[in-house]
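INTERNAL AUDIT FORM
Audit reference: QA-55
Scope: verify that the stored structure record matches its stored sequence.
Auditor: D.O.
Record contents follow.
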Amino acid sequence: MKIEAPFGRMLTAMVTPFKDNGEIDWAGIETLADHLVKTGHDGIAVNGTTGEAPTTKSSEKIEIIKVVKKVVGSKIKILSGAGDNETDYSVNQAKRVAEAGADGLLVVTPYYNKPPQAGIEAHFRAVADATDLPMMLYDIPGRTGVEIESDTIVRLFDHPRIVALKDAKGNVAATSWVIKRCGIPVYSGDDILNLPLLSVGAVGFVSVCGHTVGSDLKAMLNAWFAGDSQKALEIHQKLLPVFTGTFRTQGAILTKAALNMMGLPGGTTRLPLVDATPAQIKQLREDLIAGGVPIK
């Protein structure tokens, strides 16, 4: 079965850099978007978990799309998070995202509410019906409190605008069966499982570590799809310290610290996230060096 990759293969969920006063660093967003283009990305996902979407205003989210679009133009695709635990808000946010010029929607399972599968399915269908944009489901039960069950994914893939799945479930066996059953294009949403998910049919990544090792991840993808599984494995093993190190605490915290070490505008976080401690930065530096990341 050959499965096409509707948003390209290499995407990163971009951080939102904040200044010390809590305002968004708009010039920093431009710099980071340009950095991702230059490291081989096919797409950028904004306004997601790593972008600290729970603490950015709707107006800020729309401006982020516009600023990134101004930088990347038509070179790469822009996906924007539009999911919330309220369906009506998600529907209206999806419409705003479409008007702002995004190329696709990234919609997470409604969180905290813990709806039954019937509610999850109705939620996704309502958001998909709201615009003409293609939509990627986002399954991350560790954050949302409830998974998108396999049968639900298979049914949702019948919708003409639900075209992909970001998989951060951590259950490669379940994902294997979903791919076999319906052929939905799956993007790994958990960097340390990037290669294992490729091995069962995933088409690409929506990465966090793409901020720091995007070129290596693109090389892994190129090797895998060229049939060089040994080269892909070598890259995976080289990057293990980065995959582990980036998630020793919340991913946005350490990604921002890593970018700052690289001389890029990671900026600060917004509460309830807090910036990395000196001890966390010291450990992260060791992890990044072990993974071959050039840091200052």
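Auditor finding: record pair retrieved intact. The chain has a mean pLDDT of 97.
Action required: none
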